Amino acid sequence: MNINLRKILLGFLFCFLILLSIVFLLLNTSFIQEKLLSDYLLRSQLKNKTYIAVENFDYNIFNHQLNTDLFIINTNQDKDTILFLPDLDLSINLYDMLFTSDFEIDEITIFHPAFNFSSNKEETNYSFEDFLPLLSS
């Protein structure tokens, strides 16, 4: 019985490329991207009971465009949205996000921000001065 090692290796290479293509296509769907990012962001807090949430997350791997609705939420008493950025559009390289330890954004322009602060000073622990360090961290 003659075993052709070249055919076996080409078969494994072909199966590996098909599997890699399926994983790449799954990671390029917005549902999978939003699920992975939302789970990660829920586990990491900015400050005491303050975290980032995203909706309508879509990252196009080919042209490096990220579109999302971004929320900064405080859960001290009730779920309260501190900052809402609708239709946030960024151009970020996937390599920079995954493989660099220091990821810096030089400038963000916010066109239609919505700040929700409580009108009663006794009920809230946040002021505008407390909010700005959250963005820089």
How would you describe what is shown here?
This protein has 137 residues and is an alpha+beta fold. Helix content is 38%, strand content 28%. The chain has four helices and five strands. A hairpin with a 5-residue loop joins strand 3 and strand 4. The longest helix is centred in the first third of the chain and has 23 residues.
List the helices and strands and how they pair.
Blueprint: H1 5-27, H2 30-43, E1 45-47, E2 50-60, E3 65-74, E4 80-91, H3 94-99, E5 114-115, H4 128-136
Antiparallel strand pairs: 1-2, 2-3, 3-4, 4-5
Labels describing this entry:
137 residues, alpha+beta, 5-stranded antiparallel beta sheet, 38% helix, elongated
**SS field, number of helical segments:** 4
Instruction: Please tell me how large the radius of gyration is.
Output: 21 Å
Percent in strands: 25-35%
Question: What string gives the helices and strands in order?
Answer: HHEEEEHEH
Helix content: 25-40%
Number of strands: 5
Class inferred from helices and paired strands: alpha+beta
- The neighbouring-strand order within the major sheet is 1-2-3-4-5
The biggest beta sheet is recorded as:
5 strands, antiparallel
Low-confidence stretches: none
Shape: elongated
Mean pLDDT: 78
Distance between the termini: 65 Å
